[in-house]
Amino acid sequence: MKSILITGCNRGLGLGLVKALVGLPTSRPTHIIATYRDPGTSGELLELAKQHSSIIPLQFDVKNFDRYEEFAKSVESALQGDGLNVLFNNAGISPKSTRLNFTKSDDLVDTFVTNTVAPIMMTKAFVPLLRKASDGNKDAPVGPHRACIVNMSSILGSIEANVDGGLYGYRTSKAALNAATKSMSIDLKANKIMAVAMHPGWVQTDMGGSKAPLTVEQSCSGMVNTLLSLNESHNAGFLQYDGKGLPW
């Protein structure tokens, strides 16, 4: 895996994934392209990039759809002629409203745009670079060393596992993202580009809260190990951070 693009890296899981990748003992990616929105809240990422030449921080808001073409060209330039091996659609939000009587339409729309529409449009924008990586590594097996899309999902997006209700914006946006992941796995299969949905576990982030059982480091280390072990049999899979399959 020579290159990976991760969205939403100013904090939380995105930043944790960057740290896990640069901390790999061997086979570290040559290019770790990490997006952030606000320099004022991305100090740790920007400082880390000064210490590791493989980290390329790029300021970008995934909801700014008018800039997708321009952003893709910036990534292409950063890759210096190579394709993109992995697109990790990590950026996401969770609305404060939980139960039905507190749910607001604006929250639903905003969550759906960030958690579902943006990953779909991001994937659309980067298919050419993913295809370039796949075509340039025809001897490599299907997987992250060739071309792969990882969509950060959640067990809360599982319809079968929903026994508590509520969380309308988050649950529906992640369930929709799971459906999109399945379509990507079918539509891009001929190009040897695979797609999976990944659940990071319940993690101690701003979204997960302090009572979560997993640290960011534990979750991200597991996700990176799982990512590196992906093969064609995992295409269209819904996987936990440790590689365990999850119900749709």
From TrEMBL:
InterPro entries: Fungal_SecMetab_SDRs, NAD(P)-bd_dom_sf, SDR_fam. Keywords: NADP, Oxidoreductase. The keyword NADP applies. GO terms for molecular function: carbonyl reductase (NADPH) activity. GO terms for cellular component: cytoplasm. Belongs to the short-chain dehydrogenases/reductases (SDR) family. This is AGAP000564-PA-like protein.
